Amino acid sequence: MRSALKKGSSALVAAFVSLIGFNYRERMKIPKAKSTILPGRRDGSNTKPRPRPVRPGALYTPGEVREIFRRFSVQRPEPQGELEHVNAFTLLVAVVLSAQATDAGVNKATRALFAAADTPQKMASLGEERVGDFIRTIGLWRGKAKNVIALSQALIRDHGGVVPDERDMLTALPGVGRKTANVVLNMAFGQPTMAVDTHIFRIGNRLFLAPGRTPEQVEEGLLRIIPAEYMRHAHHWLILHGRYVCKARKPDCPRCIIADICKAAERTTDTPAPLVPLAQPVAATEPVEAVRA
Fold first, then answer.
1. In the predicted model, what is the mean pLDDT of residues 198-212?
2. Is the N or the C terminus of the chain less surrounded, counting Cβ atoms within 10 Å?
3. pTM for this prediction
4. Which of 100, 91, 76, 65 has the alpha carbon at shortest distance from 225?
5. Which residues are catalytic?
6. 20 pLDDT exceeds 80?
7. Predicted local confidence at residue 56, as pLDDT
8. How confident is the model at residue 229 (pLDDT cuts 50, 70, 90)?
9. pLDDT above 90 for 276
């Protein structure tokens, strides 16, 4: 009885294996259908690519942009930077030191520093350790002291101790990025540059004035739409507006002189504040969180 069952089971297994082998051999003879690869799909997937979100451009007419900066020019006819300096070199050093620090804190440290060294030669003679003693109250002071000495030495070696008035030459200096170079070019040499810091980056996107994912995109957008006659001071107007009115956490819309033109979603009023000249504010006490130095 057991022998008969065993023989029957073996026959069933053999038949099943034979059937599988037959199906496999037959299926191998059938050519595979060629898959259609959609354009732009490297993996061969037929899944329709998801469209990239379109970045909106400026929502303002040229007339509205002109009116925005006209009002800024009435409110602050001669805006000034809040970092204290006595020449192009000390301005360069002050801007380098201002990253992730308050203007007030930088000014407090640099008054004594610049009294001791206001040229690249004098700064290099101080040495990294002595410069560090002057700026110890500033965030990241060790790295900044190193950069100040290195850029001083580079100015002496490559530029005869003179701060260059070209962006590429400035950004080649240790610790100097595009934003720092644009500040120096604008304030020291009067060039119509746009230094995009955290305030300008926020305003460009929040107000849809020059939306962009990077500081360079915002800079490009602002340079494209701001009328030439307002470019000299545009960077200061936007910084001061962002620092004191269109603040990061909560915009102070009742104090805004462009509230009737503004297209920000956070806007709480469409009644502009009175357009009157303002006094130059004291140095800011909030950290300058540079988007890119």
1. 96
2. N
3. 0.74
4. 65
5. 179, 197
6. no
7. 55
8. very high
9. yes
Tokens of 257: 């002189």
What does the alpha-carbon distance between residue 103 and residue 199 come to, in Å, rounded to a whole number?
A: 14
Residue 101 β-bridge partners? 288
* Structural domains of the chain ordered from first start: 62-255 (1.10.340.30)
Using 50, 70 and 90 to split pLDDT, how confident is the model at 283? low
Spatial separation of the C-alpha atoms in residues 178 and 186, rounded to whole Å: 12
Tokens 């000299």, residue located:
232
**Three-state SS sequence of the chain:** CHHHHHHHHHHHHHHHHHHHHHHHHHHHHCCCCCCCCCCCCCCCCCCCCCCCCCCCCCCCCHHHHHHHHHHHHHHCCCCCCCCCCCCHHHHHHHHHHHCCECHHHHHHHHHHHHHHCCCHHHHHHHCHHHHHHHCCCCCCHHHHHHHHHHHHHHHHHHHCCCCCCCHHHHHCCCCCCHHHHHHHHHHHHCCCCCCCCHHHHHHHHHCCCCCCCCHHHHHHHHHHHCCHHHHHHHHHHHHHHHHHCCCCCCCCHHHCCCCCCCCCCCCCCCCCCCCCCCCCCCCCCCCECCCCC
Averaged pLDDT for residues 10-37: 50
Sole residue written with tokens 């109250």: 137
End-to-end CA distance of the chain: 91
Give the whole-number percent of the chain exceeding pLDDT 90: 72
